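FAQ: What does the model actually see?

It sees only this:
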Amino acid sequence: MLKARWSKQFIEAGCDEAGRGCLAGPVFASAVILPEGFSHPWLNDSKQLTEKQREELRPIIEKEAVAWAVTAVSPQEIDQINILNASIIGMHRCVDQLKVKPELLLIDGNRFKPYWGIPHQCIVKGDSLFRSIAAASILAKTHRDECMMQLDSLFPEYGWKENKGYPTLQHKKAIAAMGVTPHHRLTFKMSIT
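And it is asked to produce this:
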């Protein structure tokens, strides 16, 4: 069972990202404030769910959440500031967009930079421990997958429909054969093995 809250005295926003380890596409971040008592039997870390489960949960989370936001940080910005900073900036931009101001940020992972005036708590594997972070992981993942499906229609030879920009052998071979697109992250090291 995922925990409902870190502390009952604060309005909490769970924050997560998707696409950190990819060679192509933006990194997506999400922040979600869930209502008191929100639960769903499938709610979990997005990586533990099937694509169908994630797609079915997405509209439920978007409809039921007190507030939610999703942002994308481009490959060009990732190359300028690095993937960790891009993930953190993406989360900051999500918090900027929330229509309800949170009083505590629950961050998936062990690294974050303070957001103006709102305390945060980093939680390793937080997306499998807290409902709000799990919800954020689902929104970030489904929005990113949707983006990669759209990009696949422009660059089908890279197999983004299947690999979503991750460094699969097919993806790396396509880069070796055809080079990179404007959607690739140029600062990522890649070996074809």
